[in-house]
Design brief:
- The chain has two helices and no strands.
- By secondary structure, the chain is mainly α.
- The longest helix is centred in the C-terminal third of the chain and has 34 residues.
Length: 80
Amino acid sequence: MFDAWFEDEYFKADSRKYTPVSNQEFEKYKKKYCDFSIYLMRDTDTATHEIHRLSCLTSQNLHYLALLKVDLAYTQRKLE
């Protein structure tokens, strides 16, 4: 998709370089966010912790996908 942009190669190269970095940072953020959320539940049982952890990660992923859909729609409009 980066190759199809009508942008300067400098910006394309930056996008190729920083998109994987951004994804890695988002993974770290999700883990820390959900770990903190679970910490607040410290008096509950282990099964509840795991359900909450998975629910938290799912919620974060769905939010991220919603953001990507908006970005993708914007990018596709620019390509038309």
